[in-house]
Amino acid sequence: MNETCIWKFTNSNARSSNESTDTRNADARNADARNADARNADARNADARNADARNADARNADARNANARNADARNADARNADARNANARNADARNADARNADARNANARNADARNADARNANARNANARNADARNADARNADARNANARNANARNADARNANARNANATNAGDVDVRRSRLWMRSEA
User: CB-based contacts of 62: which residues, under 8 Å, 6+ apart?
Assistant: First the structure.
């Protein structure tokens, strides 16, 4: 009777000890599982944070690249605007040079025309003076010729008068001689 009770008690203690061990093992397994779940959750959270960080880095990189592209585009626009402005200024300068050249050429043509007019006027004036001189020479020649004709006429008149006078004198002499001859013959 006592042996049977001792054996039952021993077996009961053994079962209780085994059950406690099983419980502890189960608790340990549950704790391990919870720890594993926690580690997995931490890992997932870390992965999520890393993914967020990578995504944020990618977005930041995209933003930087977009900013760089925009800056390049603005710089290209500025360079193109500068080139257009430089081309416009050069075109304005070329046009101004052309206008100045046209003005200089027009001034030169006007000066040539004025000089030609002056030369023509000088030539006309010289021709007029020469014509006046020729006319004066002609008038002087006419006057000299008229004076010569008048002098010749006067000289002719004088010669004629002298001839008449000489003729009259000669005629008187003849008459005197005749009368003397007549007087002699009568005597």
Answer: none
Q: How far apart are CA 69 and CA 78, in angstroms?
A: 14
Half-sphere exposure of 157 (CA within 13 A, CB side): 6
Closest by CA position to 144, among listed 134, 152, 156:
152
| Segment holding 1, helix H or strand E | none
Per residue in 131-164, pLDDT tens?
Answer: 999 999 999 999 999 999 999 999 998 898 888 8
Give the dihedral sign, CA 25/30/36/38.
negative
Span 34-79, pLDDT tens digits: 999 999 999 999 999 999 999 999 999 999 999 999 999 999 999 9
CA distance 153 to 132: 30
Q: How confident is the model at residue 165 (pLDDT cuts 50, 70, 90)?
A: confident
CA-CA distance, 59 to 28, in Å (whole number)?
A: 45
Q: How far apart are CA 114 and CA 120, in angstroms?
A: 10
